Amino acid sequence: MNVPTELKYTNDHEWVKVDGNTAYIGVTDYAQGELGDIVFIDIIPDLAEIVSSESFGTIEAVKTVSEMFAPVSGKVIEINTKLNDEPQLVNTDPYGDGWIVKVELTNPSELDVLLDSKAYTELLG
User: Fold this and answer.
1) Which of 6, 27, 87, 89 has the largest CB neighbor count within 10 A?
2) What is the domain partition of the chain in residue ranges?
3) What's the pLDDT tens digit per position in 53-110?
4) How far apart are CA 8 and CA 41, in angstroms?
């Protein structure tokens, strides 16, 4: 299982990649593996902001639907529209082309409570 060291993680299996004041958010390799084949990503319509710990949409797999929770708060800059036609990118490249939303951080200190790769790996057992 792939757990990149440069990312931050949540207990709910979302990841955050920070670049300055911008954060990319997606679901982890572990999460996509547990969900199975991703068939649809449903982001809340007209999403302008996300708030830490609140749902910003759902991810639908062949077997189940799971909520996605924001690991940090921020102003939504971009939603990965590639996922509309290719939701399987979350399966094949969860930390690259499978990112879900990009935000401008409104409270960077929220990153301090997220897990690093070591802690996330320990959480997975």
Assistant:
1) 27
2) 8-107
3) 999 999 999 989 999 999 999 999 999 999 999 999 999 999 999 999 999 999 999 9
4) 21
Distance CA 78, CA 85 (A): 16
Query: Strand 8-9 vs strand 55-61: parallel, antiparallel, or unpaired?
Result: unpaired
> Domain 8-107: which topology?
OB fold (Dihydrolipoamide Acetyltransferase, E2P) (2.40.50)
Contact 70, 19 (CB under 8 A): no
Extract the tokens encoding 71. Answer: 């690991």
Cα–Cα distance for residue pair 79/6, rounded to 1 Å: 22
Q: pLDDT tens, 42-55?
A: 999 899 999 999 99
